[in-house]
Amino acid sequence: MDKAAYMKQLGKLLHENYPQQQADDIFADYEDFFASGLAAGKSEQELIAEFGPPEQAVRELNDERNGSRTSDRKAVSAVCVVLAVMLLALAALFGMPGVFVLSAGFVNPVFVAEYRPANFWLDFLFPLALEGILALRLRFGAPPKPGMDWVPRAQIILAIPAAAGFGWLIWYSFHCAEESAGQNGVLIALQRADWSGKLFIGCSLLLVASAALFLFSAIRGHGGARWFLFLDTTLLTFLASLGAMLSNISETYDPARDIAACLLWSALPNLLAAGVFLAVLKVCEKRRAAAWTDR
Amino acid sequence: MDGQMKKGVLEMCILHEVAKKETYGYEILDVIGDVFPGMDRSTVYAVLRRLNADGSTTVRIGGDGSGGPQRKYYCITEQGRAALNDLTAEWEAVRGAVEKLGVCPPPQN
Question: Residues A136, A80: contact at Cβ < 8 Å?
């Protein structure tokens, strides 16, 4: 690591943890330390070794600001893990389709009941609460465990073929409307069909694996994949409602309208949750900037 | 460096350096870093920054009069002086107790 890489990493971490003004101030201090150190005849490598890694620097700053210690941070992490597990259990209990896909029989249409309006609020509250817990864990919990940095990236890579599978599923919905109008249990027929059924199951498995990886990395303290939570829950609820729709095809089935409804009912609560979460974050940041009068 | 005692000692040393004369960030980090070789200078900076936020020190931005670069110069406040006195008294008491027990021998004069 040279000075440029060090400062780049430091700047990134500072902007994640501090309001603009303070991040810039700390950054300028480090620029000055490097300039002074180089002027005193030290090499970039020597100075970097003396300062310690940027992650450590930001953690020390946070600890001094919050007055918290490592043991407190570990306790916060543990509490957040317990809260996240409780939330998953609770959501499964209430039968939120998205969470059923994640936790229980992933495409069992018996589990995935008809899309009820109450699920809107569950689909809205679940990602919001989970993201809140993860935000707390990232901010006040123990520092991220080193290694396994590939997890957030793997999660994103997994979600891409899963999303592609949806394209096929939507095509199949149109296709099967002509063939099986008036028939029930198209989804079961679909699952029994050889390659197409495997594709459907494969696609849901990929999505579940992606969500599981996300949770794993977030619980370990990696912030990177956090913003994909809303996308993950949207895809999961979409998969669940599409599955429910396909297993309840009747004469009134209209693929264009029904798929649009599935999309709307899965995207809307999750988008709303993402919006509320972002707004809360912004307000917190404003208040923090106002309360923290460090110069 | 972990633990409240080390943080307290570090606080005392930083306040002592700033109390001696108006000084700039890198100089403080360098002096303290040299006597605590196992410690990251980022730790010293974090404590210095908190001391400044608490009002134990104040910052003046300016040059050193020799046409050098503009820097943040730290100087001690009344509050900082009081904190330094408290910390020093505490340290003396701890050192006295440790020496009395013979955990580490008193310095030879």
Answer: yes
